[in-house]
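Replying to the earlier thread about multi-chain prediction with a worked example.

Input:
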Amino acid sequence: MIEIKNLQKFFQIKAKFSNHKTVHAVRNVNLTIPSGGALCLIGESGCGKTTIGRMLCGMENPSSGSIIIDGQDISKLKRGARAKLLQKVQLIHQDPYQALNPTHTIEQMMKATLKKMAKQKKKDADWIRQRMDELLKLVGLDPETILFKYPHMLSGGQRQRVIIARALTVEPEMLIADEVVSMIDVSLRLGILKLLRYLRERHNISILFITHDIASARYLGNDTELYVVYKGMVIERGRTELVIRRPQHPYTQALLSAMPILKGIEKPGKDRFVITSQFRQSEEEPHGCLFADRCPFKQSICDEKRPELIHSDDAYHACFFPKVRQVAAESI
Amino acid sequence: MSDTSTVNTENTFKDQEQKMAISARNINVVYATPTGDIPAVRNVDIDLPKGSITGIIGESGSGKSTLIMAIMNAVTKPGKITSGSVLLNGENDMLKLSSEKQRKIRGKEIGFVFQAAQNSLNPLRRIGQQILDLGRAHEVNDLRKLINYAKKLLIRLGLDADRVLASYQHELSGGMRQRVGIMFSLVLNANIVFLDESTTALDMLSQASVLEIIRELQREKNLTIAFVSHDIGVIADLSERIEIFYAGEIVEEGKTSEVLACPKHPYTKGLIKAIPKISGDIDAAEPLKGSSPDYRTFKQKGCLFYDRCPIRTDSCRDSRPELNITNRDHKVACFRVGANDRD
Amino acid sequence: MTTPDTVKSVHTFTPKPYNGSSFWKAAWRSITRKTSRIIGFAIIVLFTLMAIFGPYLYSSHLPINTNAIYAPISWKYPLGTDFEGTSNLALIITGARYVLLAAALGALFTVIFGTVLGLIAGYFVGWSDSIIMRITDFFLTIPSFPLLVVLSTVWNFGHPLAMGFILGITSWGGMARAVRSQTLSLRERGFVEAARGLGLSPFHILFREILPNVSSYIGMNLLTSITGCIYAEVGLFFLGVVPFHVNNWGVMLNMAVFSAGAMSSPEALPYLLSPLLALLLLTLGIVLFLDAVDEMFNPRLREDV
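Result:
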């Protein structure tokens, strides 16, 4: 089980002619992922969702708050123990074209970590070979044809499968899937999502799914919780299906409205609206609602006070004027 | 083909060409490789009706970008256009014009937005300077007017025009660069615009707003747009007509809503099934089998989709289906139209 | 066990053993792809053989022929003779060992120092980076040739190892800087981050993940610094600042210009031109061969299709 409590992250950004600017990238995020469970983080790029994932797997240190893996707070552990614990959380990179070393064959990559595992478990070379075979088959690749290939000979989908297989070599309890399908052809995306779903259902590997595409979040975890993040703050959370059908926060509604409509199969929700203003990291920390500058339903109080995440209607939202709008497309 | 049918097609061709901004016939492009020529685009006929948005769907490696380049006669080596004609507004065959004339047409009449907009901007010059360069290259006399028009367009695209003109490309975000790319394609008053994967690198909200802007500009200026993407969702949302492109050939085309509502080709069916949707049964989604077409696919003798097809028969391996009309202007290239997937 | 995308054909899995020879096979294929590369390779092999076996072909004291001083080019003396009537060809062949060994060692030192320090500085940014880079800057600032001249008055360069070491010491700075900057950009790449996430050791990351990605650069530098080193040492001998312990190309040049007056007397010209010809040929070989190096180390270019 993995728990995040009051996680915060500040980044110092070098500004051109002025003093350093501080960006509040993650604001008081709390979440719990039970073992074998899943959780989806939704938001546009720059909203801090990736930072949350990177902190969870130890690539970034939180500014405050705690990350608790299997009951142990990682910040309180010694270096060696911490590294060992963090191995249970593996990050699947967004860009499959970057995450594989171009000079290594797939076999070399798989072996690098498997050798280490074999040493720990006191197994021999046969075990390494078997395990390699087993894992590649598990992710839907044919070991015979793939082991001797270099990454550039593989398609984006195949690469992503190799990356997942490699992450599985260290026997993780959780995978952080950060935009894993965004760089892959649409026609091949579902295969990867299905694989992740399968790993969760059959192999009890929990998944933190980070994406901007609500439809793939729905596919991966329709029975789990969805967290909508904006400027580092969770602004709505609830069961995935419920958030899609009954979104309360205007930002969630904007994201849902932005989903392309499949003409002929779907019709737009009756309250659909498109926000054309760009996401902007504000120069100064606003007093009010973080979304106020782009919100089409903003009222004067929104600029003055910041709403907190409150429970209502089986879900949580951070908005002064929550209103359910039918924005998601419906099938005809 | 018999003589009479040639005459017939020629006649209909004549009737249509008035309304067509671009009408390409029998385009063939081959790529020369050490192991022999690979036909990257084969016998493609494509029409872009004036003032419409046509979507071209293809996976990476399907040759869709090559097709666009062929239409503009801008295929680069080792690719080579081996046959075909591209009529612009019913006249001027793009493939036969002198290179100087072509260069003028590109930009002035045809605009183009690259997939990676960041790569098509010069990193060492400010956006404003690049507009001036473009103007000089196309012998625009009133450069001030050009800049003003660029500003107007940028504002129209929801950007801070003065800031953008004074920026280098690295100072702009992905969404902004994409918009700047669109501005570049329109600043010389092109009325035909090709957009190659223009929203692929963007996230949902930016994508939605770029699509919205494209739609508005199209309506406003009565542009003819060809939008190329692998994302069937984006194309389904934006386009009126849709061309499904697979391994260098068009396998299905027609009105978007009709093709999506009742797809005939197994590839189209597979594609639609393979996208996770926001509504309906999630377990109905099914990944497309096999991998994207590669150079071996292009060399296949029979149906190009044979090795991924759930409804193939032996005859599909030996001969290639042609694009036939099934219903009004809905065309499909498959021997097994109507066959059930479960067979 | 069913997998989400069942692999179509699950044969019994018999992995081919990964054999180290595949790199050499691929390297051979990239060399033989172009005639120019084969020529370059042949020239390098020729000079290497010369360096190894050359001194065994002749007696330790080359025969002197007082009847054939500054003899013209003939079958007996393909490159003419020197002031004592010794065959210039024999001088070139026997002189190759010192020149090439010193140059190869110099280049090797350059590459090893440069690569290791560059990798460490680039990967462990922070204090180690600062220290290494300050030392690098120091070595980059001192003009290397004058330093060599000064050092040569103190040191005995009779053995090529000493010469090679000095050549390496003075020229690794640029290499270290270049490797460091490449490492800096590589360490941000996804695959290095992934290796870190998988708990692989820094040693593995540096030498197994990052090093292969700069290897083509290193390979090319090794070859170009060989030519650089040859010029430097031949230059030293030519200037006469290094005592002549051995017979080598630089000594030949020096003698030809300063003793034989090859610049003014045409009969001594072959004596001057033959070491120059050897230098030219070797440089040509290296330049032609350089083309193949990138392909040898980059799997993307190594591919057949």
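Residues 3-239 of chain B form a domain with the Rossmann fold fold (CATH 3.40.50.300).

Feel free to reuse this layout for your own posts.
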